Predict the 3D structure of the following.
Amino acid sequence: MIRTWTLFIIILLFPVFIFSQQQSNRLISKKDSLMPGMSTSIPFALENNSAESKTYTISVSTSIPSIKPILAKGEFQMAPYETSAYLVPLRIGAETGQGNYSVTLNITDRSNGISFTKTSEITVSGNSSLLVTVLNAPEFIRAGETIRASFLLKNNGNITENIVLESKNAILDNESSLILGPNESKIITIHKLTSPELAQNEFQNLNLSIHLKNKPKENQDVYASTQVISVKPSENDIYHRLPVAFSLSFIGMQNMGVYHDGFQGEIYGKGALDKDNKNQIEFRAVTHNPVELNTFTQYEEYFVNYKRDRFFLHLGDKTYSSSYLTEFARYGRGAEIRYDLNKVSFGGFYNHPRFFRDIKDEFNIYSTFKIRKESEISAGYLYKTPRKEEIRYGDVRLDSDAHLPYTKGKFKISNSITLSGELAYSTTQKTDGTAYLLQAEAVFKRLNGSLMYMRASPDFAGYFTNTNTFNGNIYYNITKKISVFANYMQDAKNFQRDTLLLAAPYRKYFQYGVQYKYLPSGFIILNNGYQTYKDRLEPKQFDYYERYFKVSVNQQIGVFQINLDGQFGKTDNYLTGFTGNSSFYSANLSFQKFRTSFNIFGSYAISSRYQLQNQKNLYYGARIFSQFSDKTSLSIFYQNNYMPEEYFKDRNLFELLFHQRLFPGNELDLSGRYSLQRGEIGDKDFIFSMRYTWRPNIPVQKIADYVSLSGNIGNLGIKKTEGIRLMLGSYLSVTDKDGNYVFKNVIPGNYFLEIDRSTTEINDIPTHTFPTALSLINKENIFNFGLTAAASVQGHVRFLETGEEDQSDFGQIQSVKGKSKKESIIVEATNNDQTFRKVCFIGEDFDFTYLRPGDWTVKVYRNGLDKRYKISTDKFLFTLKPLETKKLTVNVVKHQIEIKYQQESLKVGYNEIKKKK
């Protein structure tokens, strides 16, 4: 294509003379904000101060070759004492960098040969333009191999850019930052190692993200997609299976000087009984515990759950609950059933408590009505029968059958406010009682809080008796950094807990404070308040009231998380009758390194809470957890002692846990502990356990039959088709002397058929794209294909000369840009199934090898080629034959410029306006 330049007025034939008293500001402004790739005119002010007419010869030069005058030579005439402006038309090359440049006008007087020059400065503006595209990425790859993808990064602007490279899910083969000059390109490669344990075929997207160093938020993201073929498929199966775990443990315990040991077995399973996941089941069976029960060993338990759509059934052991007031939590052996309709559900349970001596049996029925999505109301009835044959201790006991009707509700008043409550009534042969519960919760953007009040009368025969409690908290964000809070809590005093574990201390406290987030990684909390702690066990270890002030600092420093606490208080000790000071100081340091987490803690106390005034205690310990691999982990814990407030529960002094997966579905766990049992202050016990677990997937439903795949590899001019190994997932097959193959007992599903190229000649290529995707759903499946000899394409990118001027011009540009900035194009070869791309430099060769015979298309893309040059033929269509080598030549030529001259000159003058006096 010939680009035609038509320059108006006399720019193209003779200089334009503009007569004026002073130069136009409009012309002056053309020197600024010039963009690469544009054409413009630069004015020069000229004067003839002599009394004679002058004829001048002019030539134009620039300070950089990429800025070229459209008319480099010319002549003009000037009358005596004439002042005029001369316009120089310029073309700013697309590769011209940002900066200041000069245009020089060389003028020679033809009458006397005197020469002089005039220079004008021009400014080329910056243009930032980065382009990143996928160059090459494998379409398929086997699991365990490395995905490698390449991207072409091109600076289409005229500014040298400092670029930062990142990848969210792959590893960069290049440096993470690079400097790219104008019109310069760079091939970026990334890679990612795939897992050989991949269970099924999947697509993986490799990401490349680029941004300028001074503009980190302006990201460009590009992705390359590759399908990873599983070599160890495990999910495909003709059976639907239920995950089940069988465990056998050997447990030993030194309990108060007496040693006991024995075996304990467990079976646990959870999952669906059918492939549609409609019939859900969960079951567990744990045999008798051979040692004394504590938190670190399992108690015998048997249960099974079944759920289908809206129906739920439970048989066996669990913690049964009717409502908060009537029976909050009661562990026992029984049965529960529930059925859900659209808005109504009803159900009930029977429970025989295992760890509560007062109750022999209890029955519950209930119904729930849903008002809205998050609002409902329920009504129920609980019936309890006592253990009349046993002696009961304590002030609270069930002396006859108890009937407890109750109702409860939850109401979503708005998106931020929820109200709930319960009302219950109890009656026995001797007493009647009532209880009620009110609760409110509010969650706003800057404010959230909750309130709960519960009261039970002295004769109420539910979970709570003769008690009341009030809990509340509020939290308000004043600013993004400052927030205030307040908490109040009062424990219920009389409740019918299970006797399996001991009761926690009675607590009553109130605190308020402020939190200040001084850094994104740190904050400080200041709070003040009072608290009451009273031991529920006998003999009592503590009973005190305390007023305190507390400071907490939490700070993240690098990988370290630091927590510091200091508490200062005044304690009234009701157990001993004295009053004294109590101070506590604690520190906690945690961090992760080398797949291991470390937590080190310690505290020092000077308190008047216990038997002695100003009693000093030091507590310290550490926990280390290391994940050596996906199969192996180790945990170590140590703490020298515990505060008396925690002696109602089992406490670890030393613990070691080791887990090892021996092979898939088989695990070994070892544990050893020194501990303080609940209720003990100083007597230590030792517990150890060795546990072996087997996790088979039990077949519960046959969902498919095995299928087969067979076929023939046709010989299309190669040496042989015998002994070729084919791979179908984890299945293998080898062809016979006629090229036949067969895969038997294949699980139905989607697969990729692959050829082991080490069993074929180096130049043999299949007639289909391999790996090829196959969907095996029929009993017998057939897939035939052929092997032929591969073809190739060889080419050369040539610059065609259109004249000496053009030849030297191209050489100038190449010398300016240097080898790293040579002009390049992208050559793409495609046959509709496969696409290959290469970046080719002008004057160099390129090739595409191992191509399948058939119809191919080769397209040539400019890749930011200078606008002065064009590709004469950018598309080639041809048919490749076996063993053929196709020769191509890509010609790059310079655009021819045609200049049309105005036939007569035109003068534009400016009239001088005289001021009137």
Remarks:
- Residues 1-29, 391-395, 803-821, 903-917 have pLDDT under 50 and may be disordered.
